[in-house]
Amino acid sequence: MTYATSGALYAEVVETARLSPHLVRIVLGGEEMPQYRPLEVADEAVVLWFPKPGEDRPAPTTLKDGVWGHHDPSTAPPGRNYTVRSFENGRMTVDFVVHPGGVAGEWALHASIGDVILITRPRCWYEPPADAKWVLAAADLTGLPALARIIEECAVDGPAVYALVETVDADDLAALPATRCNARSVDASIGTGNGVAPGALVDLIAAKLPELAELGTGYVWYSGEAAQSRAVRKLMRKEHNWPLTHVQSVGYWRADAEHWNETFEKVGGDQLVQVYFEAIEKGLSNAEASEILDEEYEKAGL
């Protein structure tokens, strides 16, 4: 089945490299990879599906009720969302944060040439509005690949980019591009967030805003830990009254995932999620629906 039909393709590891103490780069290729159609947006992300123990490749997606996916829980492989660092000449580069116990990170750490994974269709969130004079882009390690692309791809005649990054080790900053085009500054907080300490990005964003406000209309983009993501959205929407079109805050992971999942089950989280889908059905945007869901989560103690 082709990628155009199923939205999935198998990819093989063709290169591996250790970028920094907490980042591993994997380059994916193979016969099917040229079928991939990139979105060409800086925070373009795909779902990567990894082989289960004892398997040499993940189970393929199947068609059920008009939807392609892994419909059988007994055979469904583990999958995680990852940013496409680059796609060129039929090869996709993905940077992985490596830490003990992480399915994707452990796979990347031990990946060998020829190992096979499954990739499904991309999505993206980064969309500075036409009136933005500047972009404030903030990310922890998980959002660093997307932040790197924002810095690397910002146009000379586009909005100026001011970056905030939170890493475990200063050496992790080596994953950022040396050429910064229209990126005016890259400020780093070392040793905060990332599951090792309380996050600092919300406070750093708040501190940077008065300086940038003097430059005119801006756009704030955040990717990283989910609780900080919600706090960023609340900061911009509730405290500064920014429109949704000028704020994008995406939670890639949760520092308190185990506790959050337990609470989610106790409060009937699946029913709360329906609020999101109902909003979408009413014609609201993804950002509007996400904000409504955030409010429901907060009411439920999530």
From TrEMBL:
<feature type="domain" description="FAD-binding FR-type">
    <location>
        <begin position="6"/>
        <end position="129"/>
    </location>
</feature>
<dbReference type="InterPro" id="IPR039261">
    <property type="entry name" value="FNR_nucleotide-bd"/>
</dbReference>
<dbReference type="InterPro" id="IPR039374">
    <property type="entry name" value="SIP_fam"/>
</dbReference>
<dbReference type="InterPro" id="IPR017938">
    <property type="entry name" value="Riboflavin_synthase-like_b-brl"/>
</dbReference>
<protein>
    <submittedName>
        <fullName>NADPH-dependent ferric siderophore reductase</fullName>
    </submittedName>
</protein>
<dbReference type="Pfam" id="PF08021">
    <property type="entry name" value="FAD_binding_9"/>
</dbReference>
<dbReference type="InterPro" id="IPR007037">
    <property type="entry name" value="SIP_rossman_dom"/>
</dbReference>
<dbReference type="InterPro" id="IPR013113">
    <property type="entry name" value="SIP_FAD-bd"/>
</dbReference>
<dbReference type="InterPro" id="IPR017927">
    <property type="entry name" value="FAD-bd_FR_type"/>
</dbReference>
<dbReference type="Pfam" id="PF04954">
    <property type="entry name" value="SIP"/>
</dbReference>
